[in-house]
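INSTRUCTION: Work out how this chain folds

Fields: amino acid sequence; protein backbone structure tokens

Chain under study, with its fold:
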Amino acid sequence: MSTKTFELKAIERTDRAQARLNSALSIYRETILPEAQNPERQIIYWIDHSKDALTDEFRCFAIQRGLEVIGYLQYSYFREEHIFFFEYLCIRDSRRVGLLPSAALKAIERFLVDNYRADFTIVFECARKKDSVGNWLKDTKLVDYFQHLGFRVVSFDYQYPILQSFDGAISYPADLMVRLPGDRETVTSYEMRTILRCIYFKHYLRWDRPFLKSDQFKERERLINELYTRQISQIGSKDNFTTAGSKRRTIIKFFADRGPSIRSLLVKIFGPKLPRLLLVIVVLLMVQWLLGSGWLLVPFVLAVSVVYCLAEDTKSAEQLLVKIIAKLSRARPLQS
């Protein structure tokens, strides 16, 4: 399947494209362990508040192949630390037996590379499963698959805070997986503290704040502080944490440290109306060439502006056009 057939569709409001949102959340319900799920009403709240003036980002996407929704991606981006925390990345593909199609991951890669600066870190949790006798077991199939894609398991006894309730156990075990800049294979003690602080306080605690009363939030904060203290006690004076990954030569390289494509930069600078502007420039250059006068380069920019404003047909363009005409009308002709 070509990468071009897969794309990310941002979910930024719950009152639009509801069929897409419902399909994505259906995949989320079916593929994520119950103890690792956030209540959907909370997800809906944060989708509707994703554009609030926050230092960090919260984003949700439907992963689509053509018009079919086959997956759901939810991440937090911690701007200062330049870390992505993939909260949920799940796929339900009726045409494919197995896990996440590599073409879908390439679509995610292209979005991150095009929209964020290079050398970012990606972190996510692979929740462990409880067997019939109460032991927590690694999700070997899922971990092996992401290792094949270039992610690595950190040698760290990681726990994530309980989500659905604030009573009893305060955490569950998971395997912490990372993708480090420059294909590094060790996590420094400083990076480990930063990752834990971002996940616990800048994601989990921030997420819970709108849904708890003051006394409940203080208790939640106390529990997460307790978990964080317990987790960083593993670090101590240790300098680095090793990671385990695939040794296969056929490993697929995703999220390479390269800049955004020229096309994406052009779109960011000029917007989607760039083709129209280029057409106007070409037409006016042809007119200048036919007239054979280099002096027409002087009014060329003004002429482009006038024609572009007429084509734009917006309030801002109309105001700009009025100002240009006013300037031209006040200009005096040269005396011979």
